Amino acid sequence: MEHKDKILIIDTGSQLTQLLARKVREFGVYSEVLFYDSTEIATSDAKGVIISGSSEEASEKAFALAVPVLPLDAPESLSKEELDASLNVFVFETCECKKTWDLGENWINEEVANIRAKVGNDPVICALSGGVDSTVSAVITSRAIGKQLHCFFVNHGLLRKNEPEEVLNTYKELDLQVTYVDAEDRFLTALAGVTEPEKKRKIIGELFIRIFEEQAAKLGGSHWLLQGTIYPDIIESGHGGAGVIKSHHNVGGLPKDMKMGLIEPLRNLFKDEVRRVGASLGIPKHFLERHPFPGPGIGVRCLGELKKERLDRLRDADAIFIEEIRKAGLYTKIWQAFGALLPIRSVGAKDGIRQYGETVVLRAICSKDAMTATSYHLPYELLDTVAERICNEVEGINRVVWDITGKPPATIEWE
Ligand code: XMP
User: How far apart are the CA of 298 and the centre of ligand 1, in A?
Assistant: First the structure.
């Protein structure tokens, strides 16, 4: 795709690479990130290069391009304002870039044309997760090829309260052609008796792949697979450290040996850019603002065995927590909030009767990219209300605790 003016960011493994790339794009100029060992650097047509971090190899490659170079090997010591100012001067004065990166109709039309040219009359298959990335990818692809796009949505029994109905309604409004696969019994049967977190993830991932294959077979095979890959996935994969942390996140992803061409309309976009494109495509705001949700669903939030009764209990408690957060107008200020059910029981009393109930833990976090996170400081009054409501309204829960751990050392999810 023609991005006109472009700034190349050479990544040497610095934590700040994505921040720099996003900032340049916020100025309205396209930025591309390449790791310093990439052979593509030599042929880059960028109007300027920022080196994120320090490396001799990166410097040599950057200066060989004969365009302006901005080495940023101590940006932490700059204030936000100083960093913004120096990037601004570099992008617009030194490199003389023009603001040509905007994600309006032009971008969408260009992408629609690319998809049409790539797939021709072939069918394309897509596993929708209910999340923002797969939905935006599907809507843009359906704009390009209409009913040649075959989506399916799997209910693995690990979705949130009322989620299957809500998600399917939205897909209907967006005129997507979606097959609903109710696989709750299959998943819960496969998971019976399993308590070990990695084993749960493995079972969920493998069964998902089996269902994917069944759906593809029903189509008589498919040449093309639509995936909601976004730019941070591309930047983080294959770059050692960061990539490894996220390697377990491809549950709901695909068999590695699948011989299909990939359609990834969002592969150059950051998350906020995906939301902007989604809004231009008419996807409802409340849907685009949904918190990230893991592929294995509440399976990684229900510690111990995944029985329907316990999952329903967790769903009810989680729904109360989210309802109160929304009522307080805090939902969009929080990166992710959810309840998790702990496999312990403690003593309590309800209506004067001794109870031996389960514990739900509440978690709300702030983050920019899910790689690190801090606890979101929710008002105690809200936490009090949620604790009271959960214990009163959800059978079997008699204790509510508040998780204040950051990432690291904890992860965002509990398993
Ligand atoms: P952790 O728990 O590793 O999570 O701190 C970081 C972010 O990733 C999400 N997450 C997943 N997303 N499949 C996904 O699509 C997964 O298996 C998965 N596990 C965690 C998590 O919700 C958080 O946003």
Answer: 11
* Cβ proximity of 394 and 320 under 8 Å: yes
Place of tokens 């209907």: 172
Supply 148's token pair: 């040649």
pLDDT, tens digit, 9 for 90 and up, residues 304-324: 999 999 999 999 999 999 999
Which tokens in the block code for residue 345? 């029981």
412 lines ligand 1 (CB under 6 A): yes
With contact defined as beta carbons under 8 Å apart, do 301 and 323 qualify?
no
Cβ of 292 less than 6 Å from ligand 1: yes
**Rg (Cα) of the chain, in Å, rounded?**
23
Half-sphere exposure of residue 155: CA atoms within 13 angstroms, side-chain side: 17
* pLDDT the model gives residue 246: 35
Strands 124-128 and 149-155: parallel
Mean pLDDT taken over the chain: 92
Q: Is the dihedral of CA 87, 93, 94, 98 positive or negative?
A: positive
Ligand 1 binding pocket includes 413 (Cβ within 6 Å): yes
What is the C-alpha to C-alpha distance for residues 152 and 368, in angstroms, rounded to an integer?
Answer: 30
Is residue 109 in contact with ligand 1, taking CB distance under 6 Å? no
Q: Per the structure block, which two tokens stand in for 83?
A: 């960093």
Ligand 1 atom with the shortest distance to the CA of 413: 2
**Stronger pLDDT, 405 or 106, i.e. the higher one:** 405
- pLDDT tens for 58-102 read 999 999 999 999 999 886 788 889 999 999 999 999 999 999 998
State if residue 265 touches ligand 1 by the CB under 6 angstroms criterion. Answer: no
Average pLDDT over residues 160-186: 97
- Residue with CA nearest ligand 1 atom 6: 370
Q: Can you tell me which atom of ligand 1 is nearest the CA of 129? A: 15
- State residue 232 phi and psi, 5-degree precision: -60, -35
CA 62 to centroid of ligand 1, rounded, Å? 35
Average pLDDT over residues 366-381: 94
Residue type, 152: F
3-state secondary structure of 365: strand
What integer pLDDT is reported at residue 255 of this predicted model? 61
Residue 290 carries which DSSP code?
Answer: P
